[in-house]
Amino acid sequence: MNIKLSCLLLPILLAACTHHSNKEMQKTDIARIKELGQTAPVAKTIPHQAQYHGQVLSDPYFWMKDQGYPVVDDEQVLDYLKEENSYFDSFLEPHTKLVDTLFEEFKGRTDEEETSVPYTENGYEYRWFYRPGEEYRTRSRKNLLTGEEAVFLDETVLSKGNDYFVLGDWEISNDNNYLAYSFDTAGDERYEVRVIDLKTGVVVDDLLKDVQGEISFSEDGKHLIYPLLEKDKWHAKNINVHKIGSPQDEDKTVYHESDDGFFIGFGKTSSKEFFIIVSSQGEVQESYVLPADDLFAEPIKLVSRDRKFTQTIDHAHGEFYILANDTHKNFRLAKVSDKDPRYENWETIEAGSDGVYFLGLQAFDKFIAIKARDDGMENIRIRDYANHERKVAFPEAVFAASIGINPEFDQDFLRLDYESMITPDTVFDYDLASHSLAIRKVKKIPSGYDKNQYETKRIMVTARDGAQVPVSMVYKKGFKQDGSHPMHLYGYGAYSATVTPSFSTTRLSLLDRGFSFAVAHVRGGSMMGYQWYLDGKLEKRNNTFNDFVDVAKHLVSENYVALGNISASGRSAGGELMGAITIQSPELWRSVTLGVPFVDVLNTMLDASLPLTPPEWMEWGNPIEDEAAYKLIKSYSPYDNIVAREYPPMLVTGGVNDPRVTYWEPAKWTAKMRSTKTDDNLLVMRINMGAGHFANSGRYGRLRDYAEEYTFMLRAHGIAE
Fold it and tell me: With left for phi above 0 and alpha for psi between -120 and 50, is residue 317 left, alpha or beta?
């Protein structure tokens, strides 16, 4: 790489880099945009008021929600979004070289012919692979008797003619006669299902529409089970069964959820003997079991929602094995006979504890695999049916590990996925007899990678209320803890989802330019246990935002980075976090990237017509019914707390077809922020007009998106190459 005499040449020059004026850089970029004849869009305002609990809520950008949604065809809305995209393109135009450089770096770390580790199931060996230059995977299987291998699902072929394509789920029937797969070509997560006769290769006439995504065959291979989305809504109310060869309108409902506040889904047990149907709302789950060989049987209730706790369930040898947080928030391990699985009959195998947080399990013929965290550190446990247990010994102290693809019930090894912030994605097979790990695959980085050039560590930061917040960090060797290096700080913090200390090939482009990278494991996630999640939701939501800000301030005070030299980013609920920390402490950030951000929290939670709102009340509160919830959400909802002051440069992203965070949230945030802030720092928005929550679908399309986002961030730090 050719490097100008700037902030990239020597570590000593990085100190000078921190003194570049953030505002000066932004003025330069804005001037370049104006030279192209492009000025920042100014959205019109239309007065709109509503009353809740005797209070008036004003929203002059309410008009940005197309009243025909989910159809978005309001010309004034579309015109505004297109104008914002044009403005974003004008920002990028002088920096195409940097975008291209980053894209080529990302692409150079992508294995053009990557292939998976094969796995065996039902007489076949399965694998996926990429062909050079292709965006999507090709899937094949080899007959273990004949040795013949054939492609059964070519995503590249399926994606032809579509700007967006995502494969949702796929399954082959037990008799190996049929393949069923679900796919989305709009980004709205409203899937269609096709069925292929594998004996002839012919696509059968069956076409299922409005499918939530997941699908599975009955034991005899003659029926498909799937959740059906409501018309014009992204909410499944019914679990349906489809007979192969019949029209969809003849499908039978085997489970109906009458409460709009509950999500439904299902999964097959490892024994393949049962389906587990789950209806859930936040911390509350209700579970049923349905025999896989009799889908039209009456589902048997395992747990009532009235008991108000969460479960993970699998099955082996006539018993259901359950992780449940009924007696302890970090879950206990229990079992019950499948002959009479009522809650009253559950038997505890291992009680819950403060130090061990059970995350998931999979049952096998000879053992049970359990994923857990001990005081925030991940581990995999192997437990036999005589209750003997051991932990898998991994090569690093701080890592991310999970139970991999293990479709065979009877096997003498456990496939595991492993990575750390300096170790690329690795597939291990753990041998049950020798207790040893065998490497099956390490992610290939064609342009080269030497993990010995990088360092990672975990530190603990004391938040303002005394909580100890974990932070995972990575940087290139030679990093000086003298405040001279720029930093990227990432966070999420909701739904108990945890950002693990994992590997990223794109991140290397930051580390190699002198950045450190840190993940703040804030409350709202569950890094430190289930209570860590509870301490970041509902009336404790502000802990999430405070944790992130306190982490940033600690990193500054400890000279990991200088004040105002941190670029922050987060997506979805993490985008809400970005909005909140921008409002709370704008002086901390060199730039902020708000990805598909949930920033209009109050208006969304007040809109019960949105299908995803009622189930979310358990996470955020119901401001329609509860005045206290209304006041609390209004106090932190980022959109509602924009005031006239200076803010850092911001990049905001969204998607017109996004059913999770609707497009008008980033649009309204951008419009209000631009009209209110007192600085001239750059504020740009990129709205994908043909995709949803996950933006571009192909592997190279996503890399181009990342290159644009990194370009924005690097320019904020005065880095042009």
Answer: left
Residue of 62, 66, 30, 69 whose CA lies nearest to 44 = 62
Residue 5 has pLDDT above 70, yes or no: no
Cα-based distances in Å from 690 to 152, 227, 644, 687: 28, 25, 34, 9
CA angle, 290 then 293 then 296, to 5°:
55
Sequential DSSP letters for 400-443:
EEEE-----SS-SEEEEEEE-SSS--EEEEEETTTTEEEEEEE-
- For 168, phi then psi, to 5°, come to -85, -60
The two tokens of residue 143 are 């007959």
Which residues are registered as beta bridge partners of 313? 322
User: Would you state the pLDDT for residue 605?
Assistant: 97
Q: What is the pLDDT of residues 372-402, one digit of tens each?
A: 999 899 999 999 999 999 999 999 999 999 9
Distance of alpha carbon 676 from alpha carbon 643, whole angstroms:
6
By annotation, the residues acting in catalysis are 572, 658, 693
- Tell me yes or no: is domain 11-108+448-716 CATH 3.30.56.70: no
Structural contact between residues 49 and 56, judged by C-beta atoms closer than 8 angstroms: yes
Nearest to 489 by CA among 421, 423, 548: 548
Query: Which residue's entry shows tokens 């032809």?
Result: 160
pLDDT of 379 reads: 96
Q: Helical H runs in 436-534?
A: 508-511, 530-534
Residue boundaries of the structural domains of the chain: 11-108+448-716, 355-444
- What is the H or E stretch that residue 577 is in? helix 573-584
Output the CA torsion sign for 591, 595, 600, 605.
negative
Q: What is the mean pLDDT of residues 335-354?
A: 96
Angle of the 75-92 helix axis to the 664-676 helix axis, nearest 10: 70
Residue whose structure tokens are 């996925």:
417
Sequence-distant (6+) residues with CB within 8 A of 366 are 384, 385, 410, 412, 432
Contact present, 564 and 590 (Cβ < 8 Å): yes
Sheet with 124-129: strands ordered across: 119-121, 124-129, 138-143, 149-154
Sign of the CA dihedral with 527 first, then 533, 535, and 536 last:
positive
CA pair distance 187, 177, nearest whole angstrom: 30
Assess contact for 717 and 7: CB atoms under 8 A: yes
- pLDDT tens profile 194-235: 999 999 999 998 999 999 999 999 999 999 999 999 887 778
**pTM for this model (two decimals):** 0.90
Distances (CA, A) of 195 to 83, 137, 718: 42, 19, 53
Closest by CA to 204, choosing from 192, 195, 217, is: 195
Helix (H) or strand (E) holding 598: none
Calculate ∠ Cα 443-449-455, nearest 5°. Answer: 100
Q: How many Cβ atoms are within 10 Å of 552's Cβ, its own excluded?
A: 26
Q: Which residues share a beta bridge with 197?
A: 178, 202
Three-class SS state of 451: helix
**Cβ neighbours for 482, distance < 8 A, ≥ 6 positions apart:** 15, 559
Picking from 277, 203, 274, 275, the residue whose alpha carbon sits closest to that of residue 244 is 203
